Amino acid sequence: MAQQTAQQTALKPNVGVYTNPGHRLYVGDTSPSAQEVGSEHLLQPGEVVVEMKATGICGSDIHFWQHGRIGPTMVVEDEHILGHESSGVVVKVHPGVTSLKPGDRVALEPTIPCMKCVPCLTGRYNGCEDVLFRSTPPVPGFLRRYIVHPAQWCFKIGDLSYEEGALLEPISVALAGIQRAQLKLGDSLLICGAGPIGLVSLLCAHAAGATPIVITDIDASRLEFAKKLVPSVNTFLVPVDGPDATPENIATVIKSSFFADGSYPDVSIECTGVASSIATAVYASRFGGLVFVIGVGRDMVELPFMACSVKEVDLKFQYRYANQWPKAIKLVKSGLLGDVKKLVSHTFTLEESVKAFETVKDRASKSIKVMITNE
Ligand SMILES: NC(=O)c1ccc[n+]([C@@H]2O[C@H](COP(=O)([O-])OP(=O)(O)OC[C@H]3O[C@@H](n4cnc5c(N)ncnc54)[C@H](O)[C@@H]3O)[C@@H](O)[C@H]2O)c1
Ligand SMILES: OC[C@H](O)C(O)[C@@H](O)CO
Ligand SMILES: [Zn+2]
Ligand SMILES: [Zn+2]
């Protein structure tokens, strides 16, 4: 059977959003070309073509653009397409693909694991030794009009909006964290950082029944946003200088202000990756509490080692996610996480992508999640 394309005549030129080692950001031609999308021989077994409809910009996209790297191994060494938070519509499937058909609305998981190594075979494919992760160099990302992707990593979203479909990626980060932190009904929770990851963690933890929840940030506007999103959350503005600005002092104030009955945080979800914030979470923790670090940062970080020791603090980390999209889709559809679309503060077209990235970079824009759409 021939490879079928949904709209044989309506294909637009394929463009992608690139950065490069010179930190340029630009929209340029990419593959597959519209002609290739229309051809009968484009796809390998198991593959589909998706016309991307919505892509959120992640902090790591900004890192690759501005700093050219994340850590020692993820380095922009060539012209490189960004984006890994996406949804779209299937426009073509390989004849062997039975799970999807042209017209299906899908969210795309950016991880393409080998499914042969030990982490893959033991259900933790985020640790795949041979992983291809869209937008982590050298693997080109999702920010483009058409992409070839394995059907296995495209999940039907039904009547969810494309913006909700794109938000499933940061939601998956938070869900993976909540799952591995074993957060449960009635747990006292501290969330450090009210960026998109802190905020989706807040939505997920609130739905999971954590109480009380305190969220911190150094930016008052992000805390105001958190309060509008989940009115029952307590917010704490972290001082950045002055005598009160040490992690120990900040933790003391957090404990006396919000956990005065002595039920100090059972769990802290750290969503900044900043050393002083990780230290604050350690000092605020109850004896035997868990500090769960989602944020990423420097290669070497100083920790309050003795506070961890005398309080038997458990320290855990999260790297991306595994097996979270089906759960994320169910949760967003059920409404249990509230209206996640509220996180989308700005929307730009694919052609306006440079403006979209500038908006994320400019803190004065007060953006939360900036979305790039393709109508
Ligand atoms: N582990 C993973 O797989 C994974 C996945 C996605 C994102 N991340 C990381 O998670 C972190 C959060 O992502 P994001 O998109 O929300 O980023 P973001 O930069 O938008 O948000 C971080 C927030 O932390 C706040 N902050 C900075 N210093 C602080 C401090 N000392 N105390 C309290 N708040 C402080 C900032 O003002 C900001 O609002 C980043 O480090 C990101 O790279 C990790
Ligand atoms: O959402 C996924 C994250 O942005 C990535 O793991 C990134 O931090 C490194 O590639
Ligand atoms: Zn990301
Ligand atoms: Zn593998």
Q: Can you give a write-up of this model?
A:
Homotetramer. Belongs to the zinc-containing alcohol dehydrogenase family. The chain has 2 domains: about 15-160 and about 340-375, Medium-chain alcohol dehydrogenases, catalytic domain (Quinone Oxidoreductase, Chain A, domain 1, Alpha-Beta Complex); about 175-315, NAD(P)-binding Rossmann-like Domain (Rossmann fold, 3-Layer(aba) Sandwich), CATH 3.40.50. The chain has 11 helices and 21 strands. Helix 4 (about 160-180) crosses helix 5 (about 195-210) and helix 4 packs across helix 10 (about 325-335). The longest helix is centred in the middle third of the chain and has 20 residues, at about 160-180. The strands form 5 sheets. Strands 1, 4, 8, 9, 12, 13, 20 and 21 form an 8-stranded mixed beta sheet that branches. A 6-stranded parallel beta sheet has the order 16-15-14-17-18-19, sandwiched between helices. It has a 3-stranded antiparallel beta sheet with strand order 3-2-7, with no helix packed on it. Helix content is about 30%, strand content about 25%. The structure holds nicotinamide-adenine-dinucleotide, L-arabinitol (SST) and zinc ion (2 copies).
Q: Helicity level, as a percent range?
A: 25-40%
Number of strands: 21
Distinct compounds present: nicotinamide-adenine-dinucleotide, L-arabinitol, zinc ion
State the helix count: 11
Uncertain ranges? none
For the report, how would you describe the main beta sheet? 8 strands, mixed
Q: What is the CA-atom radius of gyration, in angstroms?
A: 21 Å
**According to CATH, what is the topology of the largest domain?**
Quinone Oxidoreductase, Chain A, domain 1
Can you tell me the CATH architecture of the largest domain? Alpha-Beta Complex
Query: What separation lies between the terminal Cα atoms?
Result: 30 Å
Organism: Drechslerella stenobrocha 248
EC number: 1.1.1.12
Catalytic activity: L-arabinitol + NAD(+) = L-xylulose + NADH + H(+)
InterPro entries: ADH-like_C (IPR013149), ADH-like_N (IPR013154), GroES-like_sf (IPR011032), NAD(P)-bd_dom_sf (IPR036291), SDH-like (IPR045306)
